[in-house]
Design a protein that fits this description.
heterodimer; A: 14 strands; B: Rossmann fold; 4-stranded antiparallel sheet; binds adenosine-5'-triphosphate; binds magnesium ion
Chain lengths: 409, 224
């Protein structure tokens, strides 16, 4: 074993502070790069998580079951028996945290002044409360108190459009299971305030009991939405359900809300591109700095070789200097990134861009989500690519011919 | 007597574009253990080139060099470094010291690479620094030392691990005459007291005056 390691480590450390100005500048670049990578990853992760949470919360759930044909043409004709035993067995899967049966048909809601086309949902108040945004979004009145509650719950924006209010009556009109027009009056018992305007104007909720009665559906429903204990197990659970329910159409959230999936993928992909761009900018700076340091010390490297330090140790010395730079820069960068994510608290308020965000399936406040995995990736990118690129200047230093290095003025 | 250095027909040609510069033309040299050889000659006669080649810092175009029983032309860069570490000390005209290390650390460095225990190498380095008259300046960094003091540190470092051979390329060129005189005395002292073999290139008559053997170079050849 050669004994140069401690010497080389000590030299790398001292050389780092030999030109404090240059070291500070490059440290600043690494800190900035690490910060940009981590914060951007946290932002993208927050976006992605938000898109996902909203999609799931927005009635979609992780998995849904329909009768074949319903998704192409969501009308009353494609209803299925929710009391069948195979379905009940399938829904007892231990991965399933909650499921909620729904009647879901197009309808028209009319007040004495206005009418509006909506998606009418008949929901089970007990299961739906744990399923979607509705229960926690009620701002006036109350949620359904029984499975046969005779009231209707509408969004704030819809109430404005219909020029109606809590306690007033509206008429809901749709087609029943026998293709006859069904209409009935409902009292507005609750108003909800959702994250997105489309949710407030697009839906009207009645109790499952009332819906079945009005539409002559008996035990049938249009869909069953399912929430899992762990979203990561979506695909495995989906496969099991499909096997058990060959006569039904079982789909995961990303097949039901493809726009959400697209946005999520885009955000996660953008992180990668961003990392690459930041690293390219930073990498050039690092290599340049180390190269400059190497050229300045040409004579010194020649001297080291004359004194018997092997070329491998010269390489190691330069490389360790780069490693120290990277580690110090990353440590500070992580700290600063962590503090800035902490400082944003619940997230940044982007309500000024309200309309566009809705298209992008985002809410008005975007939380930063810092995951261990993203932190690890950002740090690994800087460290590994940084060390790889610094091999070049280190190699340049090691392959100098000592005689020429020493005599060079 | 045992030869520390033996050069036979050593040739070195530098190519500068189309022009070939013959730095060494069939140089022959044998240096015995305990010798104190002085190499003089006009500028460009090949003194530095020869010393570099003997030290394995550069490779000859042709010829055979044996240093402390190592056949240099058969060795890799790493092996040459290892050979220098254990057998050769260097003193250059200037820039001999690593600027981020103190005088003591500069002297210790070679022993550190050799794997000498920390306590022992510190003790030896202090002792040698004392011997070259730098007691009390151990913790100064090179910029805080005068040119003469720096050269003394370099001599201390060159001899501290008892090498077979010390190569010094114009060690006194940047020193005033009194300081130069002192440095030569020091090297001569190391030669007589410790039996260290020296090969020194110089233009300085006082150095030649101290030599056991004076050799002269002209046009890449050793003439006398
Ligand atoms: N790296 C090099 N490339 C090209 N030519 C070189 C190189 N090094 C030395 N030479 C040439 O080789 C010849 C011998 O040079 P060398 O440095 O050995 O002379 P020297 O005797 O040490 O001279 P001085 O007394 O000026 O130090 C000179 O003509 C010089 O120009
Ligand atoms: Mg010379």
């Amino acid at each position: 074993m050669n004994k140069g390691y401690t010497l080389v480590a000590a030299l790398a450390w001292r050389n780092l502070w030999r030109n404090p100005r240059r070291t500070t500048v490059i440290l600043f670049a690494i800190v900035l790069g690490a910060w940009a990578m981590i914060v951007m990853a946290a932002y993208a992760r927050g976006m992605s998580k938000q898109v996902f949470d909203n999609a799931i919360d927005n009635l979609t759930g992780h998995i849904q079951i329909h009768a074949p044909g319903y998704l192409e043409d969501p009308v009353i004709d494609y209803a299925f028996d929710s009391a069948q035993t195979t379905l009940k067995t399938a829904l007892s899967d231990p991965e399933i945290a909650q499921f909620s049966p729904r009647v879901r048909v197009p309808a028209v809601v009319a007040s004495e002044r206005e009418s509006q086309g909506v998606t009418l949902l008949g929901i089970d108040p007990v299961t739906e409360a744990k399923m979607s945004f509705l229960r926690k979004s009620i701002v006036a009145g109350n949620f359904f108190v029984s499975a046969r509650d005779p009231g209707v719950i509408i969004g704030k924006k819809l109430a404005e459009r219909l020029e109606t209010a809590l306690g007033r009556r509206v008429v809901i009109m749709t087609q029943d299971a026998h293709s006859k027009i069904a209409d009935r009056g409902f009292r507005v018992v609750g108003i909800f305030d959702a994250m997105m305007d489309a949710q407030e104007t697009g839906f009207a909720f009645i109790s499952l009991g009332a819906a079945r009665q009005m539409l002559n559906l008996e035990n049938r429903v249009s869909e069953i939405a399912i929430k899992l204990h762990d979203p990561a197990h979506t695909d495995a659970t989906l496969e099991r359900l499909k096997l058990q329910l060959p006569a039904l159409d079982v789909r995961a959230w990303y097949k039901l809300d493809m726009l959400a999936k697209l946005f999520q993928d885009t955000w996660e992909g953008s992180t990668f591109v961003w990392h690459l761009i930041v690293f390219l900018a930073m990498g050039f700076g690092i290599v340049n700095t180390i190269l400059m340091a190497v050229f300045e010390r040409t004579r010194e490297f020649g001297l080291f070789q004359a004194l018997g330090l092997k070329p491998g140790f010269i390489l190691l010395q330069v490389w360790l200097e780069a490693l120290l730079l990277l580690i110090i820069g990353l440590a500070i960068g992580n700290l600063v990134a962590w503090l800035s994510v902490l400082a944003t608290g619940d997230g940044i308020d982007v309500s000024a861009f309200g309309q566009g965000l809705e298209m992008a399936k985002l809410s008005k406040v975007i939380p930063f989500v810092l995951t261990a995995r993203d932190l690890l990736i950002a740090n690994a990118v800087v460290l590994i690519l940084g060390l790889l690129t610094c091999l070049y200047p280190a190699w340049r230093a090691a392959r100098l011919v000592p005689a020429h290095a020493i005599t060079r003025i | 007597m045992h030869a520390v250095v033996s050069c036979k027909n050593v040739k070195k040609v530098y190519k500068q574009g189309a022009i070939e510069v013959i730095a060494l033309a069939d140089a022959d040299l044998t240096v015995d253990e305990g010798d104190f050889v002085c190499l003089s000659g006009p500028s460009g006669s090949g003194k530095t080139t020869l010393l570099n080649i003997i030290g394995g810092l550069d490779t000859p175009t042709a010829g055979e060099i044996i240093v402390a029983d190592n056949r240099l032309h058969t060795m890799s860069k790493s092996q040459l470094a290892e050979m220098r570490l254990h057998h050769i000390g260097f003193v250059f005209q200037a820039y001999n010291l690593i600027p981020v290390l103190t005088a003591l650390e500069n002297v210790e460095m070679v022993m550190q690479m050799q794997g000498v225990a920390k306590h022992e190498r510190a003790q030896r380095a202090r002792q040698v620094l004392k011997e070259v008259g730098l007691e009390g300046l151990e913790n100064r960094k090179p910029p805080e030392l005068s040119g003469g003091q720096q050269q003394r540190v370099a001599v201390a470092r060159a001899i501290v691990s008892n090498p077979k051979l010390v190569l010094a390329d114009e060690p006194t060129a940047n020193l005033d005459s009194k300081t130069a005189e002192n440095l030569i005395d020091l090297m001569r002292h190391m030669n007589t007291e410790h039996g260290v073999t020296f090969v020194i290139s110089t233009h300085d008559p006082r150095v030649m005056h101290h030599a056991k053997r004076n050799l002269s170079m002209v046009d890449g050849r050793i003439v006398a």
